[in-house]
Every structure is written in C-alpha cells, then in structure tokens.
C-alpha cells in the first residue's frame, strides 16, 4: 500500500466516517420526530401564578407548558409571590421546589396566600437529597408533588393529606437532536458534579478511558485519586443547559450515574431516605437522541426499557463492556438512541407532567 492510499484511509477514518455517523444519527432522529403525531395540549380552566426555582432548564419548559394548558399564567419571582398573588387572585400558585433561591420568609408568605383562600402547590424536585429542608416546608402547602417515590411516604407521615408522585421530564425546547461542531464531539461524555460515587467510578475507569475521546465536566473533580490520568478530559465548573445539550448531541455515549443519598457532606438527608426515582438527566440525554448508559433506580423501568431504548450498568466492569461494545457498533448504538428519543418525546415532556399536575389539582 503506497503512502497516498494510507493517507486517504486515515482521512476517511478521522474525518469522513465520524461525519457520516453523525449525519446518520441526526437523520434518524429527524425521521423519529416526524413519526410523532401532533397532539393538542390538555386545557384547564385555571388561572395560575408560577414561582420559578431559578434553574432555567426546568423553569422555562414548565412555563411553556403552563402557557399551553392554563387559562391564564403569570410568573413571579419568589420574593414577590405574596404581592403578586394578592393582585392576581389566581386559582393556583405553583411553587417550583421552594429551595435554594427562596427568601427566609417563604413559608410565611405561603401561609398568608393560603389564608386568602388561594390554593398553593409545591413540586419538590431535589428529593431526597434535601429532605431535612423539604420536610419543614411541605406542611405549609395544600398540594405536595414530588419526583421521588420515597418522598411520598415522608410527606404523608408529616401530615400532608394531598401528596402526589410526579416524575420529572425533558424540555424539548432545549433538549432536542442537533448537529453540533467538532468541539462537542466525543466518544464518552459525563456532565455533573463529582459526588463520591462518581469520583470512584471514574477512578476505576481511568486506565480504560485512555486513548478514547472523553469529556467530563462539573465541580469537585479534585476528589479524583486518578486525577493525573484524567485531567486532560476534565473541564471544571458549571456548564449551561444549552451547552450541555450540545455535548449530549455530540457524544457517542453519555454516562448517567445518580448521586448518592447518604447523609453527609453533599446531602441534607438525615433520615437516610433512599433514592428510588430517576433524575432529570435521564430524560434530557434521551431527548437529544444519544445513547445513554445509566445506573438503575427503582422506577426506571416504568419509563424506559433497558436494552431497548436505554442501556444500564450495575458495575464498572459492565459499564466498560457496554461502552466498548457500543463504540464498535454504530448502528445498534443509533437504534437504541432513536428509540429513546421516541419514548421521551411521546411520553416524558413537561407538557405531560403539567397536564397531570393541573388535573390532580382540579380534582381537589
């Protein structure tokens, strides 16, 4: 084989083939989206005041869904929700999470709104990691929604009479198939903080990841013992949701590992509640039409089918085996990702969740 032939083969391997498979993936995603029938939103004769949690990736999707389904929608910052509720007199005040960006007088304002005969609901989406805080907040609400199965029993034991399990979802306005530039294209991607179980996983995989194109981003990655081997893969700090979606689209495989729930440095969960429900990342990765390999939570199989529209692992060895397999089997990787996209867009968007929430409130 002469030098010219060798060069041409290298160009095909390093340029043409990655571009071909990215086009193949994206084209399949567009075909999948074209198969989903357009359904009108469910409509509810409710005037809603929405109080965001301050995380745009979720807030903006919920606002979009509420605009479709509620008779009227207004949005208030947490510090102004009492004044806004008094002037608007809504049928429902929906507080998202009630943590992190809320002022100290938060519960006092909730009590004052309820005293005026206005129904107030909260949707907790950080359970069970901050259950010490949410346990104090929940009794102040008429309706309590939680994405976490173990949270339902907790709030009922605390005397809350109307508690609902409502899983999270993906916002298709943000998390959707895209064609992205080379700077976002990796073999393996993980975006999230280095909780101790995540640091341990990547320490175990440090040697396996050598020679692959890997992107790891988030905080606390100084916890790694194998930081020297992995340092070239790591981008420290927060990644904006729009940027996150681009990295998901550009990756051949995205790893999802749920954070641990044990009380301690990273959690306020002194009751030691287990984590039984999947995180929003599960839906968001799938909504981008990318293969996801995730650890297993109890309710995962209520929403996805392992081996069909998602892949799972229970050990580092199994994860490495599946990464190696899917990196070498492009068509199978794309097929699982397409099925995951279809499942997510049909069943797991915030339009569905808000419809379920408003239906539950309407029945009260």
Q: Could you explain the architecture of this structure?
A:
This protein has 364 residues and is of the alpha/beta class. It contains 14 helices and twelve strands. The strands form two sheets. Strands 2-1-3-4-5-6 form a six-stranded parallel sheet, sandwiched between helices. Strand 4 (119-124), helix 5 (131-137) and strand 5 (143-146) form a beta-alpha-beta unit. The longest helix is centred in the N-terminal third of the chain and has 32 residues, at 3-34. The radius of gyration is 22 Å and the shape is globular. Residues 3-13 have low confidence and may be disordered.
Going by CATH, the architecture of the largest domain would be 3-Layer(aba) Sandwich
CATH fold category name of the largest domain = Rossmann fold
The Rg value, from CA coordinates, equals: 22 Å
**Fourth CATH level, the homologous superfamily of the largest domain:** Glycogen Phosphorylase B
Content of β-strand: 15-25%
Structural class: alpha/beta
């Amino acid at each position: 084989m002469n030098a010219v032939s060798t060069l041409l083969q290298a160009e095909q391997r390093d340029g043409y083939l990655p571009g071909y498979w990215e086009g193949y993936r994206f084209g399949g995603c567009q075909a999948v989206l074209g198969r989903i029938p357009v359904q009108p939103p469910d409509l509810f004769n409710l005037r809603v005041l929405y109080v965001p949690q301050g995380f745009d990736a979720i807030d903006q999707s919920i606002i979009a869904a509420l605009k479709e389904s509620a008779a009227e929608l207004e949005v208030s910052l947490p510090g102004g929700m009492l004044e806004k509720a008094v002037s608007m007199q809504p049928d429902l005040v929906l507080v998202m999470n009630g943590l992190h960006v809320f002022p100290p007088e938060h519960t006092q304002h909730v009590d004052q709104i309820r005293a005026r005969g206005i129904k107030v609901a909260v949707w907790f989406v950080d359970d069970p990691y901050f259950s010490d805080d949410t346990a104090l907040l929940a009794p102040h609400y008429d309706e309590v929604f939680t994405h976490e199965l173990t949270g339902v029993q907790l709030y009922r034991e605390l005397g809350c009479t109307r508690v609902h399990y409502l899983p999270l979802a993906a916002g298709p306005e943000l998390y959707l198939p895209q064609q992205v530039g080379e700077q976002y294209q990796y073999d393996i991607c993980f975006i999230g903080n280095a909780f101790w179980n995540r640091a341990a996983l990547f320490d175990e995989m440090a040697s396996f990841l050598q020679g692959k194109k890997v992107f790891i981003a988030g905080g606390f990655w100084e916890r790694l013992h194998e930081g020297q081997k992995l340092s070239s893969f790591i981008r420290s700090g927060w990644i904006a949701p729009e940027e996150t979606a681009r990295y998901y689209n550009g990756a051949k495989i995205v790893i999802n590992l749920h954070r641990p729930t044990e009380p301690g440095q990273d959690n306020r969960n002194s009751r030691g509640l287990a984590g039984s429900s999947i995180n929003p990342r599960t839906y968001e990765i799938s909504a981008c039409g990318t293969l996801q390999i995730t650890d297993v939570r109890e309710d995962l199989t209520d929403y996805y089918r392992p081996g069909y529209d998602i892949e799972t692992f229970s050990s580092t060895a199994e994860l490495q085996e599946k990464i190696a397999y899917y990196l070498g089997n492009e068509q199978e990787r794309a097929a699982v990702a397409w099925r995951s996209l279809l499942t997510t867009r049909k069943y797991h968007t915030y339009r569905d969740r808000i419809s379920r929430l408003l239906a539950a409130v309407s029945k009260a």
